[in-house]
Amino acid sequence: MKNLKSKIESLLFISNQPLALKKLADLTKTETKEVSEAIKELSVEYDQRQGGVIFQRIGDKVQLASSPDNAKLVKDYIKEETTGELSRASLETLTIIAYRGPITKAELEQIRGVNCSVILRNLLIRGLVESKASSAKMQNTYNITFDFLKFLGLSHQSDLPDYEKLNSHESIQKVLGSTGGQNQE
Amino acid sequence: MKNLKSKIESLLFISNQPLALKKLADLTKTETKEVSEAIKELSVEYDQRQGGVIFQRIGDKVQLASSPDNAKLVKDYIKEETTGELSRASLETLTIIAYRGPITKAELEQIRGVNCSVILRNLLIRGLVESKASSAKMQNTYNITFDFLKFLGLSHQSDLPDYEKLNSHESIQKVLGSTGGQNQE
Amino acid sequence: MHPIKIEEFEGPLDLLLQLIEQQKLEITKISLAQVTEQYIEVLNQSASQHISASELADFLVVAARLLLIKSKALLPFLQWDEEDEGEELTGQLKIYKEYLDASKVVQSLIAKKRFSFSRSKLLVAEEIGFAPPPKLTKDRLHDVFEDVIKNLDPWLNLPTEVVKKSINIQEKIAQIRQRIFREATTKFSDILKEAKDKTEVIVSFLAILELIKQRTVIVRQSKNFDDFEINRLD
Question: Is residue B61 domain-resident?
């Protein structure tokens, strides 16, 4: 396991994009299950160390990033011009996706009460949201990207304030399941 | 000290090259002596961890690198990334640049409907695409390289199959032109 | 009545919430009925300036649901289904409010600028030079580009789809108007009998309200909470 963790860490260190569990399993010629275990352990280790590098995870993808504690220092060094400015509609949509993702467009529209095609496309183009074909839900699902997680300076979506409550909202299932689905296309 | 170590670690993580002690001292606005102390401690910590990332010191410069234990794995991954076949997303991006170049990143993203930053950087690194400052569009434009054109066995971009028809296809014009103000937030 | 001054809103639920909060009301069925007229007024004022074509249908749907809730409160004899529209909308609004509040927390999180960054380029020891994907051919590029073009269709057709949806609602309103015009006097309960679904019930209301406003019909009710007659004004 130590060995596998070391391999995963090396790959994440040199890579310039998030790597999926499956990809890591292929590269290291290991079972996905073992990779999943190794990633969990690595994630805990990084969280505990609280060093200059954090271990980020969204769904089945992972990536290393610089610690938000040193945001300004790193930003100045790499001359990034990130401002993190978002319109209200973007912010509202991203919040729902961050707490509820992966989420379908219909579910998102049910919560916002308005058609979200345009805003979703804008967020996809800005790289703050990504879509994935979901066989379980028979339609695309949307989730936030590592780029957005980096705006927040968090390691996981679940580190968001009040995540438990807003992620598994009791009555939300009722609303989403209700016949009042006015926004389905 | 924990603070300074974290800062140095962030900088070494994000940097693609070794950093001199003096440079680290400047960046973190600290005395070289303190930086030197912090580096010693970091070095010991990394040695003890024996993870996938190692701490190297060469003369007065330091850097983080992937562990030599995983040298082959890392080499294979880089090889695959830089010389292998393209992912679907990369292929789409390259195709759009081939048929529509010179094209700006914004136009490219309008057509694909997703952010292309990372993919574009990878295509540039592989010498398939080049960027040029365009005074007309007030931003960089991207086009396929002459090497890539030759590789395809063509002497002109317009020799691509169905170039005339596909280059000026109505759907492309529409998505780049007035889409009825759909793209404003 | 409180003056309505709504600067900016993101969708119908946001507008509704603002109206309720302006009057310092809780989110209940009763407050929904109370702000119904203001909602419709704002809709009339702002429809052209602030509401995009792609969102108009959603605003109309909520307007219709509000009217339904209000009418149920006023006319208890109306019983077209068991579902409680009021409960549904208050539930939805409460959830929307929670995410709206959360979005403010998220905003403050971003405002701290505690950004993290990842490597922008793959860490390689030496320059790669020209490295084409070995099997790529010009024909493959051609096929992929055709796919790219095809994949644009849903997006390019979107405005048409959305406009169709609002037209449907507006068409229904027009149909019901014509019906009222054909018969000099008609009962509201008769109109409802023909409504195929909840949306049509709602739309009937919208149509009648519109006609009253234009002074083309007059509505008579013999006593409170009773059925009413609609008479054409010649």
Answer: yes
User: Please, which chains are in contact with B (at least 3 CB pairs closer than 8 A)?
Assistant: A, C
Tell me which amino acid residue A80 is. Answer: E
Task: Please tell me whether residues B92 and B63 are part of one structural domain.
Answer: no
CA distance B24 to B28: 6
Angle CA C89–C93–C99, to nearest 5: 150
Quick check: B12 contacting C, CB < 8 Å? no
Domain match, A116 and A167 both: yes
Residues C122, A14 contacting (CB under 8 angstroms): yes
Walking along chain B (185 residues) 10 residues at a time, the average pLDDT comes out as 93 95 96 96 95 94 96 95 94 98 95 95 95 83 97 96 95 77 37
Cα separation, C132 vs C119, whole angstroms:
23
Asked if A67's CB is within 8 angstroms of B10's CB, the reply is yes
Instruction: Flag whether the ipTM exceeds 0.95.
Output: no
For residue A53, the surrounding DSSP H or E stretch is: strand A53-58
| Of residues A13, A67, A147, nearest to B52 (C-beta) | A13
Helix (H, G, I), strand (E, B) or coil at C199: helix
Rounded CA-CA distance A145/B88 in Å is 19
Listed in sequence order, the residues at least 6 apart from C140 whose beta carbon sits closer than 8 Å to its beta carbon are B91
Full-model pTM: 0.87
Residues B167 and B98 in one domain: yes
- For residue A78, is it within any domain? no
| B9: nearest Cα among B33, B41, B31, B32 | B41
CA distance A92 to chain C (A): 6
Residue count (chain A): 185
Residue written as token pair 């019901």: C176
Q: Which of B10, B67, B117 sits opposite A74 (nearest CB)?
A: B10
For residue B27, the enclosing domain spans: 2-70
